[in-house]
Please model this.
Amino acid sequence: MPARMYFLGALLAFLVPAVAGAWPVDLVLPLEAGKDRFQKLAALEWVEVEDASVASAEALPGSNELLLTGHKEGQTLLLLYAEGRFAVWRLVVGAPPSDDLSPRMASARKVCPDLKATQGAEKLLSVTVKDPACRAALLEVLRSDAYVARELELTFEVPALQEQLAAMSAALKPLGLEARYSGAGLVMTGSASREDWRKALWELFRRSVGRVPLEDRVEVKAPEAPAAVPDAGPAVEAEPPVPVEIIRGTPKKPRKKG
Model:
């Protein structure tokens, strides 16, 4: 019995979604180099930019507002987190590079026989992800900007789902975390530092085809307190410096007695 996972979410441009982001991104956002852009969200706790030399992002405290700044032409990814949910946007500074999707789409059709893709005003990509070969081909297609997450309708069969879980587990294990499926959702457990926890969210995004409904049960460790400075004992008053007479000039040579 195939595990069916259909994802046709609403546009998530201004709301961190209820499901975790994955390939493709949730939103493609254009920026201009040297200019700021403010984005209002329903909720926002923190953000992280993959390449801060291309663009930077700052969560403005107390406002649920995001300040985005383009720095140089290029593309980078932005991870947003709020209330146990995360999304990933692609930030494009300047003109986006041309991307010919035809070769990748042709390869995907060979291993995903029921793949259907439409362009235009009503873009939609629907497919049954039946095995690892189909999943790998779709990852290449979805890394482009041709589709965003809301424009996918995916059905996973068990072999592809198992292979995807294995890929996620391999990435999470070095971080001290585990993943398992509960129905069609992914449960992530374990204890990790804040840095490793953020790495884990990136890994889930990069290794997933379509959105993954995530139940995040990770215990984020508090940062360790700095080591206490040992007590040096009572202060000892220093002795006053001894005056030293400095003799200037060249010393005279002793006379020879004749």
Summary: The helical segments are 102-111, 132-142, 158-172, 194-206. The chain has four helices and 13 strands. Confidence is low (pLDDT under 50) at residues 1-21, 244-251.
